[in-house]
């Protein structure tokens, strides 16, 4: 039944799995495609709602980015690329209130961050995973992810404060769906939180639908003035552009590690070793180019979506064609301004309730990264790296200035706390002694099986990847 030639993780196809959805017939393929689209929908459209970016452009480039990723990964990986939450802090640092004239500069910073994906992709191809990953251990990436969620927390509270009752409905709905719901509802708790709290907000009379009535049914999803190309030329602020690039690029160190984790999760779910074939160099290249393309045209950064991995686990339909169908549906929806207006009418309290949970989950992912990687905090160097990342990132973000500002000639540069904390953590991890006798993977206990494998050299790392 399987037509995919990727080597399996355990040597056998997953039981009851469908690797070629054409056997199910076109109607069922379409249904599964819609299911993937709705799974990514709530989180993907929430990013432009939180940042001020275009919902229509977001859907368009989520679809196009997914298709580009599939092309570059040899059409083997059933991954959907949706909006990345990790970069929200970067958008907030450059355009704190979603100012239309500032958002293109933030997008320029995100596009520059996408270039780091290409660099890491080339490094994986040239040097292998073991040598590259030594610079980005969990003791660095974990605290960065924790800081991202905590920095964003204040904006969630501010939005909730506009109507705590509506925000509470969103929070309760997400918790109930995530813990007690069954089937598909459990896979889309964020979308359910948005829908239920939005309906409740309509009932209590705090939603203004005037913009929906005036919106057209069909229109172009991208406006030139909202793109990076729209700010080039006369009036271009080189200082702000440099600030955006320096502030936002370090976030990519965390998202690239997240990408590797997502590909590992998809491999485990589908019972295919996508780390080996088509290889991380190809998946990183696809993710990076999709992020660059989306950002240049005013859409959020893309990332592989865990929600869709959940759908794979639920349905056991592992054919990438179904995911590509979902991408096509997202592209079609992007050409409906009336739909975007419905999203734009969402009250801040709905956004606040949902984002309160999401931002907390972002920090929780960072904590889980530290725990599951067995980072040893009895080692002073690990304590120092983590402490300085957190204190610098959060302390500077909530300081009176909110950033470190300095001048380079006539250009004024403003570095966010997250940028300073990330760079400090990466440099400290390189400078501080990394070994405690054998020089291998200092963040793992001596008796940890992965440590024992890595002591065997490159062959040992290959064994870890194959697991």
TrEMBL record:
Cellular component terms (Gene Ontology): plasma membrane
Pfam families: Xan_ur_permease
Location (main, coarse): membrane
Annotated keywords: Membrane, Transmembrane, Transmembrane helix, Transport
Residues annotated as transmembrane: 53-72, 79-96, 102-123, 135-158, 164-181, 188-207, 227-253, 322-344, 350-371, 383-405, 411-432
Subcellular location: Membrane
Record membrane topology: Multi-pass membrane protein
Gene Ontology terms for molecular function: xanthine transmembrane transporter activity
Record InterPro entries: NCS2, Xan_ur_permease
PANTHER family: PURINE PERMEASE C1399.01C-RELATED
Family membership noted in the UniProt record: Belongs to the nucleobase:cation symporter-2 (NCS2) (TC 2.A.40) family.
NCBIfam families cross-referenced by the UniProt entry: ncs2
Name used for this protein in its record: Uracil-xanthine permease
Source species: Slackia heliotrinireducens (strain ATCC 29202 / DSM 20476 / NCTC 11029 / RHS 1) (Peptococcus heliotrinreducens)
């Amino acid at each position: 039944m399987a037509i995919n030639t990727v080597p399996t993780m355990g040597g056998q196809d997953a039981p009851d799995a469908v690797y070629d959805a054409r056997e199910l017939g076109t109607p069922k393929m379409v249904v599964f495609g819609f299911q993937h689209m709705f799974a990514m929908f709530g989180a993907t459209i929430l990013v432009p709602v939180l940042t001020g970016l275009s919902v229509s452009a977001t859907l368009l480039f989520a679809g196009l980015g997914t298709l580009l990723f599939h092309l570059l990964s040899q059409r083997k990986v059933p991954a959907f690329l949706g909006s990345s939450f990790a970069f929200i802090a970067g958008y907030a640092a450059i355009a704190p209130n979603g100012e239309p004239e500032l958002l293109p500069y933030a997008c320029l910073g995100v596009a520059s961050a996408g270039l780091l994906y290409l660099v890491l992709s080339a490094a994986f191809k040239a040097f292998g995973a073991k040598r590259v990953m030594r610079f980005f251990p969990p003791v660095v990436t974990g605290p960065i992810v924790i800081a991202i969620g905590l920095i964003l927390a204040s904006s969630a509270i501010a939005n909730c404060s506009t109507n705590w009752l509506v925000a509470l409905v969103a929070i309760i709905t997400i918790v109930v769906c995530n813990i007690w719901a069954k089937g598909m509802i459990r896979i889309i708790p964020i979308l359910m939180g948005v829908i239920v709290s939005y309906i409740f907000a309509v009932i209590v009379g705090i939603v203004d639908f005037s913009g929906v009535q005036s919106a057209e049914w069909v229109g172009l999803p991208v406006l030139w003035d909202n793109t990076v190309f729209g700010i080039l030329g006369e009036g271009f602020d080189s200082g702000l552009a440099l600030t955006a690039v320096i502030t936002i690029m370090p976030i990519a160190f965390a998202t690239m590690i997240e990408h590797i984790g997502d590909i590992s999760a998809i491999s485990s779910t589908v019972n295919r070793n996508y780390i080996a074939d088509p290889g991380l160099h190809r998946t990183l290249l696809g993710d990076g180019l999709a992020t660059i393309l989306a950002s240049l045209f005013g859409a959020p950064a893309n990332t592989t979506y865990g929600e869709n991995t959940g759908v794979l686990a639920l349905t056991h339909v592992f054919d990438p064609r179904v995911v590509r169908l979902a991408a096509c549906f997202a592209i079609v929806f992007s050409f409906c301004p009336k739909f975007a207006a419905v999203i734009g009418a969402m009250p801040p309290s709905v956004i606040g309730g949902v984002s309160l949970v999401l931002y907390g989950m972002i920090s929780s992912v960072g904590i889980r990264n530290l725990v599951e990687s067995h980072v040893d905090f009895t080692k002073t160097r690990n304590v120092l790296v983590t402490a300085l990342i957190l204190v610098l990132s959060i302390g500077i973000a909530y300081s009176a200035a909110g950033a470190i500002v300095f001048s380079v000639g006539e250009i004024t540069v403003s570095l966010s706390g997250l940028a300073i904390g990330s760079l400090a953590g990466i440099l400290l991890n390189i400078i501080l002694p990394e070994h405690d006798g054998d020089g291998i993977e200092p963040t793992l206990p001596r008796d940890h099986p992965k440590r024992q494998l890595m002591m065997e050299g490159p062959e040992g790392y290959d064994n870890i990847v194959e697991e």
